[in-house]
Amino acid sequence: VWFGIKLTLQGQTRWRGAILLGLLVAALLFLQGLNEWPLWGASYDTRVSYSTFLAGKVGSALLFAALSALTITLVLPAAEPLYRSSWPERLRLSKTFTLRGLRSKEFFSASVVGLSLAAVHIGYVVGFYVLANWLGAWAPQEVNYQESVNTLFPWISGAAIGLLAATNEEFTFRLFAIPFFEKFTKSRWLAVIVPAFLWSFLHSNYPQEPAYVRGIEIGLIGIVAGMVMLRWGILATLIWHYTVDASLVGLFLLRSNSLYFKVSGAVVAAAAFAPLLFAGISCLARGGFEADQDLRNSAAPPPNLDLALAPSSAASAASTPRYDALPVRMIAFLAGCLLLGALMAWRLKPESIGDYLKLSINAKTARAKADQILRGRGLDPNSYKCAVIFADIVDPVTNEFLRERLGIARVNEIYDKQVPGAVWQARYFRDSQPEEYAVKLKPDGSLFALQHKLAEDAAGASLKKEEAVARAGKYLREEKKMDLNQWTLVETDSETRPHRVDHLLTWQQNTPLDSNAPRQAEAGGQAYVRVRVAVLGDEVTDYRRSYFRRSGSADEDEPASEGFSTFIKIPDDWRRKQEETTLPRESLTFGPIVLLGGLGLAVLIIFFKNLRSGAARGIPWKRLSLWSAWGLASFYLVFVLGNRIANFLNAYNTAIPYKTTLGVLGITALLGGPFSFGFLVLLFGVGCYYARLAFGEERLTRWAGMPAAYYRDALWIGLGGSAGLLGLERLLATAAMHWPTVHRYFEASFGQDFDAILPAASILGSTLLSGLRMTAYVVIIASFIAAKIKPTWLRVSLFLVGALAVVGESWGSPADFAKQFLARLILLGVLVFGVRLVMRFNLLGCFLVIAGTSLVSGTAELLAQPDAFYRRNGYAILLVLVLLFAWPFAAWRLNAVNVGATAAGTGANP
Fold first, then answer.
1. Alpha helices (H) in 319-431, listed in sequence order
2. Rounded CA gap, 43 and 41, in Å?
3. What would the pLDDT profile of 298-356 be if each residue is shown by its tens digit?
4. C-alpha 2: how far from its chain's center?
């Protein structure tokens, strides 16, 4: 994409063909999605109205088709100039599928080679796995795309899959990658081999074992495909790739006894052979091939692949930003926002679920306590790999049920004393071994649950249900200190494993949690605490759904909140009613998001369409890259010192090799940083383009090199804006408590980064990265509206749609919707006022508001914890916050002193 942008700025790319091809692929993929309509009924959730379900399926098919088509449309414009420059004797891509191109000798030769390579490829796969199986590798015996026979038009799947795979992968890994690598490595062999194996190992998620065998298999044929492209052009590999992928569906259909399926398979095959047949028949009918000298790449002017951009005009380069300082009354207004906002943030304390949380241990001490617990069970924790995370295990729907019946204060008390809402989890596992342990600790460090997972085929006892109940009861009395006279056994489930019998037992507390609720509320059912234990053979352990799989659909039918050893059971009918959706509700929820998404796409389309314009050519990409380098550093700061690695290892599936997981983690780290960097550069570039259109070059401000008034204003904008926003959020939350309404669900707030290696570093990195992104978003939105959306009614409509988009789907009644919509209107209105009349062109002030609110929230969360480790991190963030605001203060005073000294020097030398 970056290469394509560079070439577009130089006028070397052609987008029309790429867009048309993307539309063709999108249309086929969308038809494929609609063609699967007979399969939709199997996944229908009866809590959703059928109209909503259909709209969601159609929308998903459209979204998948559009995103898949983008992977072709964005690559082809960058690849075509490289191909044109490297192979001038080949047919131009834009002329290949014209009538004259179809009659050419090159088209006929490429068709023959492509189909021949497809036949060789199929035989090669058979031979490769015969040899690989002999050497110890394994490949599954499976039928691909068997669901195509359940669709109305089975041939659509073959055509869509073949066309997407051929265009996407061949354009990326052959058409673009081979000339690109050859240009920079000066080695044709490296240019063929490296893309081949980059392409092949993207297929390593297939079920072959070992995982790399799939990469070797495809990598070798990828080298052959690269050599074919060098000799016969990209058309040969396109036909080869389409034929191989389409044959997975076509051959399956042709082997059917049904005439309809045979005809459908023939349609898929015909699409592969049609180019060859047309070219051959045309040659025979005309007595020869079409002359193609004027259709070749050499007939067009050779592209200039020098990536150095033309320098900006002298006027643009010499222009200095013009900044109008805020008037004194606006500074006074910001000072008032600082005082009033700080007062409201200090005095107003609206209740929220999660306020009870006080962490007496951190991730390191949680690991030490968990190790000690395992040693007490006769296990060596050092023989396991371990991942420690802080997990939120509350259910938002359950939260709302309890909030309505008991109030937030009582809900916090329940999560603090009876059913922990957030716990430390230490997972102990071994490479590729199904057996593992999980130790869950309460926030104060006491043991909450010890969970054990056994392999499906592990040997064990086969107890009767009565014996299992007796063992589990003893465990609950002695280990959990429970008085079972206050509990009732309500569920028993037995699962016969290959070499043992497992039991799942559930006790329910006799007294409901909401026993003091009003009588009219009791008619809808009550909430009870439940405890589940699993008896694995003759071993009793705390239950965890992912450790104890039940046959049938029992696990899928239960809500996720009931997958823990201790949970709150609310009435099923009440939950179902809360989770029901209708088309009007979904339209209000997702309609504004779709509209804004379409507007965002329009922003990008207009930007790319005008990349050759003067406004786009003047974008200071080098300076924007330096700004975005802070985003690159922030990504790796969060990745290394945050909780990303721990969460990744906690999700490790022991069915795959641990080295594979580490490889995926490494690739994530390798690609994530450059992606964050490139995304920031693009955002700043788009913002700069629209700002130049709307306000002119002289209005574009920077982080450094600005007058003293700019930094003074940035300081006051940051202080007043941060305090004002924090205070306004507290005020709106407090006001909402005095307008009680029914929600659909109610989220808990436990904070973040508690399980980071260094929470201060993680919060700092996240703040810096999000601050840069949000600043770019603000610039893009404000500049685009100013440049392109002129009518007042359209701006007001966009404002209302924006407020609707951030309401979300948590509202539970019309009154609740009105309350939340009003709150978002107020908040969004304040933001619009701040950007338009206060921030204006002060880029630094905008960043300080975003970063300041984030750092203040992070500091408050950490300083509220009793553990000394978190308090030290909280003070570290507080220091960073002080230094952040010291930056504009120092720049303001230094610039003022320099200006004063310059003025004095000028006056002394008349």
1. 328-347, 363-376, 396-406, 408-417
2. 5
3. 877 777 666 554 454 444 444 567 788 999 999 999 999 999 999 999 999 999 999 99
4. 21
Sign of CA dihedral 326, 327, 333, 338: positive
Tokens of 630: 């802070």
Please name the residues in contact with 425: beta carbons below 8 A apart, sequence gap of 6 or more: 388, 389, 390, 391, 438, 439, 440, 441, 650
Instruction: Provide φ and ψ at 287, rounded to 5°.
Output: 80, 15
Q: How far apart are CA 211 and CA 659, in angstroms?
A: 10
Largest CA distance in the chain: 106
Q: On the CB side of 691, how many CA atoms lie within 13 Å of its CA?
A: 25
Token pair of 145 as six digits: 């795309």
Token code pair at residue 497: 């494993």
Q: Among 175, 78, 93, which Cα is nearest to 611's?
A: 78
Q: How many residues does the chain have?
A: 910
Calculate what percentage of the chain has a pLDDT beyond 90.
Answer: 54
CA pair distance 501, 538, nearest whole angstrom: 9
Structure tokens at 503: 């039991």
Q: E strand or H helix at 567, and its extent?
A: strand 566-569
Q: Which amino acid is at 327?
A: P
Cα(701)–Cα(553) distance, integer angstroms: 59
* Stretch (H or E) spanning 575: helix 572-579
The candidate with the shortest Cα–Cα distance to 565, out of 586, 540, 589, 544, is 544
- In this prediction, residue 286 carries a pLDDT of 83
Concatenated DSSP letters for 342-370? HHHHHH-----TTTT---S--HHHHHHHH
Query: How many CA atoms within 13 Å lie on the side-chain side of 596?
Result: 19
Query: Which residue from 614, 604, 647, 889 is spatially nearest to 753, judged by alpha carbons?
Result: 647
R_g over Cα of the chain: 32
Q: Which two tokens stand for residue 755?
A: 């399980």
Q: Tell me the C-alpha to C-alpha distance, in Å, between residue 727 and each of 138, 333, 339, 341.
A: 62, 15, 10, 4
Note the pTM of the prediction, 2 decimals.
Answer: 0.83
- pLDDT tens string 749-808: 998 899 999 999 999 999 999 999 999 999 999 999 999 999 999 999 999 999 999 998
Q: Which residues of 395-424 are buried (b: 16+ CB within 10 A; e: fewer)?
A: bbbbbbbbbbbbebeebbebbbeebbbbbb
Neighbours of 160 (CB within 10 A): 25
Tell me the pLDDT tens digit for each residue of 195-205.
Answer: 999 888 887 76
Is 700:842 a contact under the CB 8 Å cutoff?
A: no
